[in-house]
């Protein structure tokens, strides 16, 4: 498979001029990102790299990071985790409060904000230094010690994060939060502020394409069963209330973030990350979704 030729075709076919969405503005720092940015990186099971555009520029990965925190929580709790958070698609916006009332404070899945905040509560409760241990985990699976938080993004998240504070308080009132609110939201805002490039994301997500093992060292970070669960959740819940559309168009497990990034994996084949900050009305990268649809069409490879 000539992945570089396929990526070159995608780069030639697609442009930010062809999409009609907008850069996220509800987090002030994200509103400053250049909407013309566009990059893509494929990391294959034989350790080859293929890319185009702004694939090595750092950006705020936002909700993509929820896959990392979920992985850490599953290592700590195993199947007991599902007593605290469900595994169903939400069908509602990612920051919805309404479902919590009907479902006794148990979020629909770990990728909507309420679910990721429960995961944050677990990590804050069980880890000595959760922010540092998150960085250590991401650096280890990426094999890149340069990865860090973006302090400007974390501060910007905090300045507008009242709804997330409300979600934690409401779930605490309903008995599904153990820790105090402040350390939970502090961890969550830092989680969402992780700055990574398409290349780094593709390297990090290779463990989900490689049965939980780091490509190259073969060290097992996650069990195959854990990876199966996480990939299933990415397939059904990784794109907020547009997960069905992503499965229909692209046919890969993946996760998006409002920073304009999308990561997807093809088990045993590759991991791929794409970045374009212009979002559609559902909060997913408009150009990124088109690029990944072209990737699976041109390669003829999807999980279906």
UniProtKB/TrEMBL annotation:
One of its GO terms (biological process) is glutamate biosynthetic process. It comes from the Bacteria. Its EC number is 3.5.1.2. InterPro entries: Beta-lactam/transpept-like (IPR012338), Glutaminase (IPR015868). Pfam families: Glutaminase (PF04960). The keyword GTP-binding does not apply. Substrate binds at residues 63, 113, 157, 164, 188, 240, 258. It catalyses: L-glutamine + H2O = L-glutamate + NH4(+). The keyword Hydrolase applies. GO terms for molecular function: glutaminase activity. Keywords: Acetylation, Hydrolase. SUPFAM superfamilies: beta-lactamase/transpeptidase-like. Belongs to the glutaminase family. PANTHER family: GLUTAMINASE. Homotetramer. This is Glutaminase.
